[in-house]
């Protein structure tokens, strides 16, 4: 990747308190200020969550073979979901992304940067707004030219573990790396799988990038948060929390279960591995020698000093541990409070039940 001059320690001052190794990165500070104020609102809210989701949906249109069902497999992290929005936003797995894609597109045009660069910048900035979040690598310099990725390349929430692992292996990811990528669901929500509870979160701490997701996906489900009939929806252990079938099978599959469970007591490892696998994802199909490292523009997230716990009313007996090599860790149970999870989410406007 491109650094500034023969000495990578050379720095350039963009504005007071803001330095970079390459002067090409200075413009991204202007974009940062604009999108934080006018797109992401400096919050770990729906806009930040969607921006992180778009990174995956853009980049996973890629195959190591270059082919998918005998045809062009997509260019990876190339911005095709925005460049070819008239095609790719019609794919079922991209449901709910249209509003954010077109909002982001306007900012990219305003600042004269490629759509691929903007997608991966906005996602990195968005997740940095989440308490405990990672500081993702950001490389700039993608071309603004791409062909549409084909349909059916994004794993679906109703897919089996075999289907998910096969698609991800074709893109170059191991089962352990799939588990690492799923940390994104710690600040995720469901979109149009069950429209009656659209934007229902996937764990009980949707504004924190923490390991709580990896605990709660191992709990036995009791009832669905929605109508319970949507393809890809499973019963949830917590009122107000949406349960994806894909998360259930990955948490319990022998190929990913131990990696999944390991994050419950080691959030630092969860963050480090997520940063590493996201760096791989966000450069699929790209020649990194032609890109410029502008990672120093990405804000440093706040830390989370809280261990994962069993939710109120849950015990070890509710856990469906699947890692045969290591016992499920001993973690405390959060005391019950008057405000239930569903009531908290109600008041934030996510769920109305």
TrEMBL record:
<keyword id="KW-0732">Signal</keyword>
<dbReference type="InterPro" id="IPR024589">
    <property type="entry name" value="Ligninase_C"/>
</dbReference>
<keyword id="KW-0439">Lignin degradation</keyword>
<feature type="domain" description="Plant heme peroxidase family profile">
    <location>
        <begin position="52"/>
        <end position="327"/>
    </location>
</feature>
<dbReference type="InterPro" id="IPR019793">
    <property type="entry name" value="Peroxidases_heam-ligand_BS"/>
</dbReference>
<comment type="similarity">
    <text>Belongs to the peroxidase family. Ligninase subfamily.</text>
</comment>
<dbReference type="InterPro" id="IPR019794">
    <property type="entry name" value="Peroxidases_AS"/>
</dbReference>
<dbReference type="InterPro" id="IPR044831">
    <property type="entry name" value="Ccp1-like"/>
</dbReference>
<keyword id="KW-0408">Iron</keyword>
<keyword id="KW-0106">Calcium</keyword>
<dbReference type="Pfam" id="PF00141">
    <property type="entry name" value="peroxidase"/>
</dbReference>
<dbReference type="InterPro" id="IPR010255">
    <property type="entry name" value="Haem_peroxidase_sf"/>
</dbReference>
<dbReference type="Pfam" id="PF11895">
    <property type="entry name" value="Peroxidase_ext"/>
</dbReference>
<keyword id="KW-0325">Glycoprotein</keyword>
<dbReference type="InterPro" id="IPR001621">
    <property type="entry name" value="Ligninase"/>
</dbReference>
<keyword id="KW-0349">Heme</keyword>
<protein>
    <recommendedName>
        <fullName>Peroxidase</fullName>
        <ecNumber>1.11.1.-</ecNumber>
    </recommendedName>
</protein>
<keyword id="KW-0479">Metal-binding</keyword>
<keyword id="KW-1015">Disulfide bond</keyword>
<dbReference type="InterPro" id="IPR002016">
    <property type="entry name" value="Haem_peroxidase"/>
</dbReference>
<keyword id="KW-0560">Oxidoreductase</keyword>
<keyword id="KW-0575">Peroxidase</keyword>
